[in-house]
């Protein structure tokens, strides 16, 4: 049956909550609401069991919607659509059923005018043939028509049948007669109880066509389901026709998997394909790939539970509310039964219960939210931030409306079926390749810079570890967590992945993907495909392989410097900040040379989808990448196919013949390669190209803007210039969207218009580039205003989750502020913030950039095998036991030390427990180097001893007392000080290669410091000697090459030294503050985090009380009198003899002697110390108990 619930809610939020948080979705297909509660952005509140249909004028008119339709999410979206209607008071939906098409008009007709009825008449006159093309297609009008007539009202309400009322109703009756509409709700059934008189009337109605009436099963009211704060009862209509349900797509719940059972099942399934071995032919590859896929799918089917359906109620809905709803339902039924007896007790009881129910709903919603926030931990913190940060919606399931498209003749067509929508999306998202290739024939490619080497098990394990565990899977349904929890898979995958390169093959299902269509937030019109964005969900196994290849490709490009230096996007160690700093430096340098600068910001249409595969492969070979990577990319991008997914619909396969798939780990670096030729078009010192993925700016320097404009035009028009790149790479420039900016401080300097391909481009004064607003004078005022606006908006959002007396605890709020607000304000801050000058700070922190360490973005190859093994015991005792069991003849003890004199490192060689030699090295001052560097330098000294001393025997052990250095030594990364570990790693490898030994011959082992081990204690003393100065260094000839020159300054140490000076200035500024003397007597550790630690475990209300007591801004008369909130500052309990301030409240007021006695018994003499009470963690619970029992600060 088609089941419709119709009701006017009188804009009551509690009535809507009561309705939505019932099991109404189980029993009803459509809800038509009139006068629903609308929030400030024009939405109602729903849940995921419904799809909300607003008036089609919602986004084009500012008027408040007074009719909203909810359609059950279990109904296939392919069976219904919305029809545009030019009024905020009518929602028209068309539904395909087993007995034809039903068009539902959800109507709210204002009681003061007939504009809605007139609009319906005009609309039907123009569209009736589309609405009822055949006799089997029916119409139903449901709603609050706000008209009284003897045809439907009770005869006793004859006083309502005035001439004016009958005249108004006549227009509605004429409209029903014109379209043969028959009243479905029988005469005499009232739908509204007047809130003032209690009289029952009939403003709501249901009309339908004749055949619809023949299929009508029932149409009546349900007074017991009226709900709180509304005077209308629901009308329930049931029609004998069936609907097409939406397809059920099971969702796997990986968070509830028993991974031990999962792995046991997976091992049994993998055993069917044999042990993991090297794959030697294509047939075996396909068999193994298919076998692994089958093993995973079988295991998923057996061991991964399905996600249970969401409950029909919100989390805040309680059993008490359900009970109150039942009680109200019973009383509502009784009240309706005795409606003729106006003074019957049931009417009063119903009103009282409705008020109680209404208050209970509001309280439950508010209290649940606040309780959840009060109990929030680190995980819930980011959940709460997501609630307040994501685009504000109505809580329902979204649906893509009918799309509009324009044909070649300029005619607009509407596409409503899901099949046609998917075709429209496919055409927009996956454009075909150009008819002819632009790759030069017989191109002489240079030799690759390096050869491909096999993927290692370490590389595979590391890549799997770095995956996001619960990211949405692709068509195979396998989440990343499966690879992370299934070590038995790794050997199989390793051989399979390496066979992809040795056999030059690929597995066909890896080319399949699912493309999810999502709305772009903030778009004014969602009837165009451009208002949506695709998210590609790839086969997880293929995605893992792509991640490995992407890491290797990036390393080769960076290690051999194969990309333009001014291409900043998608590359490790580079950011938007670097690009903008280079732009600013270029402009200011030109100004100092009495030159001007112009920038042309390009707009590339459809960058990723329009990338041509053969041109990409050409660029990769031209950039000298290994042939194996080029061939892999070709196989990856060939014969791809995807299914579009939106709403409850999954399309047929769409074949992709062009473009770089967004969502693939390789996509970013592939597009960087694809667009690098554009970044290379700048020639000479008067031109510059800045590129960041698909954002590109051409920079020209000259004496006048005529010169710079000519240079920019030449950069675009010359051979191998911008337009040549555009034509060769199928990347169309939208010339009319170019932005031209002329940079100069001379406001009187003329800025002429620039002509490009018959398009006039007028210079602008501001332009957004890489998220930053540039201005032509580089004063950054507009950018600063934007940053303040963003930060203010985010800070205001935080008020939704924290207030003075409730909300997320202070410590977590501080963390959230630093993570959510500060980054929005400080994005690219080094570019546009000019700090205030401080002689004390500036003169002591000037550093020559050439002396600072350079951090290589990719220090070692991704598949590099560690040069040594490592061993870290669980604790100090275990470390000592393991040391005592060592049988190695060669041991090298290392240590690093940081003292007031400086930073030093030492390594001591022992052979057969005999001290052979010591190496020492002084790194520099503590403001320029870190202890981590010293420990890494000590490891470097140890590696040098391994390779140069003849006394060394193998296996050998290097003992280090710093676990961070040991862990990092296996695989140094792009971090400060890691270059030393890279050198140490290389030296250990060279020593082993010299002796033809494996990595197991050297172990870097953790040894606990200061445990009275002779070698370790000696290393500690020698490191302290080395820290005293360069005079304590070992002879230069005994040191490794890296240490024969002064080490570069540490980035971390410089930042730490700078922050230390900032804190010193902060302390001086604080001591000059008028508040210092008062707060210093309470908490002498300020400024600092002492208060954060004190209140870390307290709820917000108690934290707020402590803040008020410490600052004196507390609701006591002394403070309240300042704002005229109290007649006197004196304590009323002490007859006005004392000021009621914090001191009086805590120590003097006689009203609280009993409570104070309990406090003194708990704390003793400390209870008389204000500083102890307000700053000591031991006093905190007793003080809060004192406050609670006095009840003065409630």
UniProtKB/TrEMBL annotation:
Q: Name one Pfam family in it.
A: RNase_H
User: Domain RNase H type-1 spans what residues?
Assistant: 886-1028
Cite the Gene3D superfamilies for this sequence.
Endonuclease/exonuclease/phosphatase, Ribonuclease H-like superfamily/Ribonuclease H
Molecular function (GO) terms listed? nucleic acid binding; RNA-DNA hybrid ribonuclease activity
In its UniProt entry, what is this protein called? RNase H type-1 domain-containing protein
CDD domains named in the record: Rnase_HI_RT_non_LTR, RT_nLTR_like
Which positions fall inside the Reverse transcriptase domain? 499-774
Lineage of this protein's species?
Eukaryota, Fungi, Dikarya, Basidiomycota, Agaricomycotina
Organism for this UniProt entry? Pisolithus tinctorius Marx 270
